[in-house]
Amino acid sequence: MDEPPSTGAAGRDIPTLVTGLLAGAVVLMGAVASAKGWIPTGDDAFLSLRTRHLFSTDPILLNNASSAGPSAGSQYNHPGAFPLTLLAPVTLLGGPGSLALATAIVNAAWLSLIAFMVRRIAGPTAQLAALFGLAVFVWSLGGTFLVDPWNPTYGILPVAAMVVAAWGTRLGHTRMLAVTVFAASVAFQTHLSLTVLSAAVAAWALLGAVAAGYRARRDERADDVRGIARALVLAVAVGLVANAQLLVDQFFGTGNLGKIIAGTGFKEATVSVRQIAGVLASKMILPPMWLRGSWDGPVLPGDEPSTGATVLGLIVVAVVTVLAIRSARRRSPEVVTLFGVLAVAFVSASLVATRFPLRIGIPLPYFRWVWPLAAIWAAAVIGSLFSPPVLWRAFAAAGAEARHRTGAIAVAAVTIVVLALAFVPTNVDISPNPAWAQDISRDFSAAAVRETDKRQPVVIDQSIQEAALWVIPALMDQLDAAGIDVRADDAVLIQQTDDAYRATGDEQWHLAVRGGLQIDDAPPGGREIARHDALSASQRAELDRLIEDLSPALAEPGAIRLTTTGRAETDAADLGHLTTGELPVEELLRSVPFRLAFDRGAIEAPGVDQDDLRRALDLGALDGGRSIALYLYQP
Known about the structure:
mainly alpha; 30 helices; single chain; 5-stranded mixed β-sheet; 61% helix; two-stranded antiparallel sheet; globular
């Protein structure tokens, strides 16, 4: 598509150099995170544990458990463990703390692969343009997501690579079919929201390769036929290897894939066409779109743009797309093919949210695939309306000498690196592995390893307290990494780790987490081995005063009630128990669900001072959710 020089005055391949700088910046971020003591908690800790048991005598074959399972009538996991296999070489050597580095290395590899595929398709100038776009996208993500393997975001860059590889395949670069299959396999197995999208894009690329083979055979181009045949064989081989764990589990294990296909319906995931339209409009054209600042506000019921803004946004998207395609037909016809791949991706990913062809549905917060697709769409629009060859010829016609062009590329390279290094997260609270959970888990894990080293095996009891949901997985991961025989007797923990961690009932030692008002309720004979108090002495005194002041009014019948927003929510019945007065005020003000419902306007208490109530809920939720103690006991 373009023919400008790819090297500078000194003969260096500047696009390749910049690719290395961008990838290096991402790896550096992961190395710094691991060196500073980053540890996985919550779902990340389960992922960490799984990466270390992929090659054991009893290997783990699946990804983390899906939250859709319990509501869909069947317990199932995200499809496969191959995405974790990519992390395993680092985590097997470095343990849980190296997971950030492993994730960064994998993401850097995806970025590099995308850049070089664009070069193969469109040339070195297009590679540099793609690098600039990738750097903006990396900047928009921030370090929070680039070093974190949480399922909904770990699949973002594989989706981007899959689309680019499918684009190349449809243009006749049939060897990219194997890359398409590889990236699609990673995305497919990472999260349920990416299953239909990955399968559809891979099938579209395969159809393109088969059609190219048919044309080559019809035209009696024997060399092309052989080349395409080899590409198809390689793609099949890659697909079998990448999906081997998934297939072994399906035919000889739990049959997880069959359970997903047979899911009866995830009721909480019912998504309307209007909501899907709102997501697409908000992430494609309505600021901040997929840029930095959009990650901490996934489109939820009540947060989506108005109907008018959604319709107007989609009209703008349609008009801009049509103009871009018309322009691309004259200037860069190859880009029209990219719009075709994007159309397949957008339609297939949107369909799965409506529970077709899978019946599970996907909740709106997991529409993370919109970000990479929207970014590629924006790049395709810009590339169509302002194609690199046109810009380059205009620049050259202005009399720019080679050294000036090289200088311009160098300036672009520096800009890319600056963008790539701008990793300050927009909001640490949105991290799937928040700093506060890591701080607690680090101390509790050290205490657990120290106290259970000679008391094995040990069972970790389940708890639904907020901090415990982060800390308990970290305890299992850290104890397992330390070589301690750790087990679970809770169905959710067993599904998240593997049946090999199921308790037998003969274990003598247990670890239990207590929090909130029950923080001092030690199990019989239990001994406290770690504690975290989320409030300072002055904050605790302030909370006690606020509870005393608010209790008389909040204890009155009807003092707390559901709003119109609350009654419209799918879990309105569950919220109702917060308004009946059955919970003591002291417990209610320490309830994290009550605080969240109040914040989103689902519950109101008009008869009390709103500033005092909000402050009490802030402190109470902090105390109830994050003040915890760890006990060691013998049942």
